[in-house]
Design a protein that fits this description.
A 4-stranded antiparallel beta sheet has the order 5-4-7-8, with no helix packed on it. With 215 residues, the protein is of the alpha+beta class. The chain has 6 helices and 8 strands; from the N terminus they run βαααβββββββααα.
């Protein structure tokens, strides 16, 4: 089985799409046990991680040679969750949006909490989310999305990104444990009954993973 060295912004989903195998087959393979033990997730790998990619399984189907047959190819996708807020922190509820990715446009409407929940091709790395203006007094909103770009929660940058996704402002996502990030960590720790130290300790990282992944 071939081995793949993960690069920045790789994830199991993108690797699976490139290899044309189900992501579960890669993630559950015993040869990738070390990734699970190191706290990686299908959505989050670290630059330099070694991933074993199982070989493609060929399937054979009996079919009459004098007839026309149709076979359906299963396209792999991942689900994107994004909450849109206005400048006052209020959800942009029931707003039409468009996502441009992989040469296609996906249209939808945010829910009552301003959430965009939609599926994009698993190979997607970058996408553009556009929210049209509803009146002449409003500007169109455009967001650049990075898919599969979440750093491990054990890193400051990974913790900062998760805090921001949970609507807790850590300041700039720069990998520095500065005053803004410490205050954001303290707030998160207080919310979840942890010692409010402002440090990214093991208990905080574990709780941050739990809360973020179940949000």
């Amino acid at each position: 089985m071939p081995r793949y060295t993960a690069r920045a912004r790789d994830c199991i989903h993108s690797i699976a799409a490139q290899a044309k195998v189900p992501w579960e087959k890669i993630w559950d393979d015993p040869a990738n046990k070390h990734l699970r033990e190191q706290g990686r997730t299908p959505e989050c790998l670290e630059d330099g991680d070694t991933v074993t990619v199982p070989d493609i399984e060929l399937r054979w189907h009996d079919a009459a040679v004098d007839q026309r047959h149709r076979f359906r190819v299963q396209r792999r996708s991942v689900e994107v969750h994004v909450q849109l807020l206005d400048t006052k922190g209020e959800p942009l509820a029931d707003r039409a949006y468009e996502i441009e990715c992989e040469g296609a446009t996906i249209e939808g409407t945010t829910d009552g909490d301003g959430m965009v929940i939609t599926a994009v091709p698993a190979r997607t790395r970058e996408a553009r989310l556009r929210v049209p203006a509803q009146s002449e007094d409003e500007h169109e909103r455009t967001y650049e999305l990075e898919v599969g770009a979440l750093d491990p929660v054990s890193t400051i940058q990974g913790a900062q990104a998760r805090l921001r996704n949970l609507q807790i402002d850590p300041g700039a996502i720069d990998g520095e444990l500065g005053p803004w990030t410490r205050e954001a960590l303290r707030y998160f720790q207080q919310l979840h009954g942890l010692d409010a130290t402002g440090e990214l300790d093991d208990a905080t990282a574990a709780k941050l993973t739990e809360v973020h992944d179940n949000e």
